[in-house]
Amino acid sequence: MNDPHVEALYYDFVSEIPSDKFDQAIPLNTLLGTFSVELKNGKLMAQPKIHFSDEEDAKAALKPLLRSWESAALLSESRFRIRFIYRKASVIDRNPTPGVVSLRAQSLSTVITTDKATLNRFMHEFPAPDPSFQASPLTDDLLSLLREYRDGHMRLTTMANLVLGILQNEFGNRKNVSEKLQVSREVLNTLGTLSSSTDLKYGRKARGLRPASLTSIQLQWLDSATVQLIYKVGEINAGTPITQITMQDFPDI
């Protein structure tokens, strides 16, 4: 090709929760960074609004935006678990040689899913990208813990305690976490206390201490607070103006 131009990138939209059905979801058209995207019928088409001569360069520019989209969907109230699987690119020659037809090999990916669920959620809309959230290696690490918990491979208290510990290591101490993420010290201290619970069913090892039971409201509080902390990190990454989280933002425990 004399002057190759990436016209569009194509992806499969996949729900990792087979019971989440998007067959009837209305098409979504939006801007994602420097790409104009259309999501419909389980397919995403991303058209760059700037020039890319190389398919890999275009994919690299779009990849973190799709990752942020996937991450924000996981942290949403609907707890979507979505992925965008790359299929192919459409590359044209803006200055073709007369009589010469240029062909560009295109990458293909496949994904196999199994449907084991019996209770389906039928979605009328696709989860939209969230411009207030930007993924990063830190949010990736925190979200991996959240997935482990939601998959039943880790206790809620263990997950919450690890998230708090990672944030304290990242920012230096709990005081810095409070200031950086605009989360009150009371919220962080409560999270630390609940996640260190010796509840025999939900807590960590008692280590000789008398077991202390966690109520359903405390468990919900711990789940919600942990998710909001992770989301706060994504807001900081995106440069989004943030408001402080206090105990008043949660149910009384």
First-residue to last-residue Cα separation: 65 Å
Q: Which structural category do the helix and sheet elements fall into?
A: alpha+beta
Major β-sheet profile: 5 strands, antiparallel
Into which percent range does the helicity of residues fall? 25-40%
Strand segment count: 7
- Count of domain modules: 2
The quaternary state of the protein chains shown equals single chain
**Uncertain runs with pLDDT below 50, 5 residues or more?**
105-117
Query: What is the 3D form?
Result: elongated
Q: What is the strand arrangement across the widest sheet?
A: 3-4-5-1-6
Order of helices and strands: EEEEEHEEHHHHH
Structure description:
It is a single chain. The chain has 253 residues and is an alpha+beta fold. It folds into 2 domains: 4-122, no CATH class; 137-249, no CATH class. Helix content is 37%, strand content 18%. The chain has helices at residues 55-75, 137-150, 156-171, 174-181, 185-195, 216-238; strands at residues 4-15, 20-21, 28-32, 35-40, 43-48, 82-93, 121-122. It has a 5-stranded antiparallel beta sheet with strand order 3-4-5-1-6, covered by helices on one side. Strands 2-7 form a two-stranded parallel sheet. A hairpin with a 2-residue loop joins strand 4 (35-40) and strand 5. Helix 3 (156-171) crosses helix 4, helix 3 (156-171) crosses helix 5 (185-195) and helix 3 packs parallel to helix 6 (216-238). The radius of gyration is 22 Å and the shape is elongated. The N and C termini lie far apart (65 Å).
